[in-house]
Amino acid sequence: MNGLRSCPKRLQGADGTTFSFSGRELMLWPAQLLQRVYLTSRLRLDDHQCIPNAYREAILKEADEELHEIRRTFDSTHHASLDQYVLDSGKFCDRPPLQRLVGGKTTPCDNRECVFDDVVVAATFPEGWISSGDGESHKAILKRRYIRRQRRYMRANASSDCIAYGVGIHDNFHFEASLVKQGCTVHAFDCTTRDVDNRMARAGVIFEPICIGESSDLPGQIYQDHLSSVTAASNADTHNAFVSSSQDPVFMPLNDVLDSHGHSHLDLLKMDIEGHEWRIFEHEIIGSGSQRLDSLPYEISFELHTEMANKAYVSEALVKGKNKREVNELFIKLWKLGYRVISKVLNSGDPACCEFVVARLGSVNNVSDTWRNIVRSSHDVCPARRVWFGPFTKTRSSG
């Protein structure tokens, strides 16, 4: 026990990251967790006396062998850093997130309980970095103050403004209003409602009565179905008035909206549009991703609706054929654009719908220095072994 008494309270990795723990907690860590710490932060386990010699030597031997293999395969990849390669490849997961999505495409799923099984949280952050989310007015997004804290690392010509778009407002703009309080410029888009009594304007939200997307993506009958469903679901609403279904909805592609507002980047895109999110992903995010990668949203918060969703709330035409295979395909495409799932919350009333938050953490992105520092603070997550991350907290060194 002499080693435990002399064990430091903090260990600092080569990347400036510190790990805080007690000696007794460290003794309970599984060997592979220590390997994980060693690999990602080059924590020199041989620089202190917290671990018995024999145990330490065994850990280092296995970790060095794993590190050698990772370096060998890393040399043949496009990843910019070894840390990012470890994050992307999910080396310590039973089934890395991408492999799980690809392998699960052909797995039978004939009920709403299994449609999102293969989509798992692929990155997590230090405690306190993510807002508490309930899948409704509160979204589990990266807190703006942590992003602003990193902005001093940004290039001199990079914009530091926080820009957020809320697509699909209905009668609830509380989330958008919360972003205004965090210092963001927030635009709300919805061609099915209007801002009665200027409630959104008074909250600092800039409301625009248009829908994001191409008008051809939402034929008249689908629009009618959607409008009637949300109206029926909110017949008690007395604050916002729905636009008459006889009026032609106004649509504008996302890139055109960005250009018209002079926005070169988008910090956050929130979508809650009862199935129309599929068309926006297909045409506005994935379809244009390779051409305008820098203008893609850094974070996307959205509810994904599938073909088994309650038809009283979701237009059948919008989600026809959107099954487990299509869900997996969508997240595979998002992965290739650098998006990683940081939050997943099943709809408590309808498990055929699920709230997700994805962030551009993958090394495929030429992201700003702000987000490079965000990436450095993230960890890969192995859902089946999440207990590994319990004994310690990871914080950025103040120096």
UniProtKB/TrEMBL annotation:
<dbReference type="InterPro" id="IPR006342">
    <property type="entry name" value="FkbM_mtfrase"/>
</dbReference>
<feature type="domain" description="Methyltransferase FkbM">
    <location>
        <begin position="206"/>
        <end position="340"/>
    </location>
</feature>
<dbReference type="InterPro" id="IPR026913">
    <property type="entry name" value="METTL24"/>
</dbReference>
<protein>
    <recommendedName>
        <fullName>Methyltransferase FkbM domain-containing protein</fullName>
    </recommendedName>
</protein>
<dbReference type="Pfam" id="PF05050">
    <property type="entry name" value="Methyltransf_21"/>
</dbReference>
